[in-house]
Design a protein that fits this description.
- The protein is an alpha/beta fold.
- The chain has 2 domains: about 550 residues, Alkaline Phosphatase, subunit A; about 110 residues, Arylsulfatase, C-terminal domain (2-Layer Sandwich), CATH 3.30.1120.
- It contains 19 helices and 20 strands.
- β18 and β19 form a beta hairpin.
- α2 crosses α10 and α7 packs parallel to α10.
Amino acid sequence: MCRAMKEGIFFLLIKILLAGASSLTGHPNVLLIVVDDLRPALGCYDDTLALTPNIDSLAQQGTIFTRAYAQQALCGPSRTSFLTSRRPETTRLYDVHSYWRKHAGNFTTLPQYFKEHGYHTVSAGKIFHPGIVSNHSDDQPYSWSEPPFHPPTQAHKQDPVCLGHDGKLHTSIYCPVQVEEQPGRSLPDIQTTEFAVAWLEKRAARQELLKETPAEPFFLAVGYHKPHIPLKFPSQFLDMFPISSIPLATNPHLPRGLPPVAWNPWNDLRWRADIAALNVSFPYGPMPDYYARYIRQGYYAATTYTDSLIGDLLDAVNTHFPDTIIAFIGDHGWSLGEHQEWSKFSNFEVATRVPFIISRWRHHKTSPFKGFSSIYPRIKKANVHLVSKNQYHKRYVGEDMKRKHVYKNGVETTLNSIFDFLRSSRLFKSHDFENKSRMYESSKMRLISHDGLVELVDLFPTLVDLAGLPALNTCPQESRLTDTCTEGTSLSPLLHFIWDNTESRAFETTRSPLTSFLGRNKGQDNEDSDKGNAEQYSMIKTMQMDPKQLSGIGMKRAAFSQYPRPGPKPSIHPDSDQPPARDTTIMGYSLRTLRFRYTAWVGFNGSTLTPDWSNVVAQELYDHQVDPLEDHNLISHPHYASASIQLHNQLMQGWRQATSVL
């Protein structure tokens, strides 16, 4: 080949590449934040115990979805589901023992789709579930433009580093630690944040050098492990949650009429040293109150720790990449003593409901974020000491609870160093810092929320649309041979409607309570009408908008979740919390409408992975209008006979019949 021809081909390739890069100019960068086992224990979700200023600042600049649900309350199936926008029935993954590309179909993932459309995709921390679920590779080479980052200290996840009441180190659930004394002198989520921030800084520096070349947009996914158990976090974060201030769950008892198959006996907690030492009877023995407070304290402290790290990440985004779409989700919920249960592994509201926030971020001259890197050096070193039950009652019960702390030798580290930072944050400008419960007073936090039903399978099509990429088609009935499609609904039309009208000042809202944007649900059953449904046109009325502007907005009449069981009663062997698919004999299919949660436990063939709807083992029905905590199973109540039949039929019809488009 002559030199001139070679040069011609070379310059032609350069022209094609630049044209491709130019075609993506103007497409926003995307940041996806996934937090493991995070229920909506956030200030922006009206949790008065939570201290999450950075996530709340993000929520103030976006839209929060107050009724968002995972498709299964287990990490592997949930993540595979929302990263492919396919439901567990399609991915055929109900456990953590198979890879969907080999087991179900060659389904395109969320990051893969962005990569195939010109984005540079990067993973830090836990995005895909590790192990065989993602082919021991985080779905490489399909999903990521560079090798995914996993923090080296995650290898020490189960090390015995947790201080017990005997003064020795154990593998426990409750595990506040001194970071400097840990293997690697760090913790996984700290390392993940450091990597992500450094990556953003390098990316910004490179972009500055090549500013004349169209910038390739990025899709950065950052996954945080905490508050997943063990609850291992810097012990200094306990200071924000004195043990004496930690309440028990408001409904710490078995629901009336609960069928045994629905029970989650929290097997994954029982083998840990601190829980095993309590000698709690199986399967229904309650956690002692004093230790229930420790676990709840640890969960909230771990969440605040993660929030501080997210503050560092968001600060870097605000500094370097202001034109960014940011999505924040939990992969499923977690029970904190409600119904006498702990962990996930169920179809209850606390296990399936998740935080879901989407923000179209714009640059702030003064960053609203105060992260771990600025807070942690200012916190005094605290010596943590876990007390026994008898010591707890002596030390914390009665009037003394108002004054004592859990720290050894009465060491007291106050909140002042934290509040010094928070006072400068716009979010807390006018709040009373001496009373944390007032820091998140609804009337002081301006939020925009959508109270309609949303599912995690909606994430994929929503981000695709917001990024301006080719929209996904709805999956056909049999979609195993369809690589790219969605079993969710894009929230983009709704988000654009809200954003366009808030930015044009068509309305302003100060949340008290959460402002509702309830879309019209066509064909809503009378049995499912409640106060929220009675105001289903409030969005149109409040904004005084032409209904034609709502065209294309999808509204769901139901959200769907499910959970497998190996038998009709709780068991350790086989594990009724995490049964392998081959051991599954019953599947619990759960339907959440605006008013009801209905669950049918039906026979299931673990070999063919198919349900037998003629074999209904048990049913649950909870009326959220009168029982929002799901404490009373009303399936046998004659008043609800008609609703039960109606909801069962709706459940069998499935998700395709549950979405209306305005």
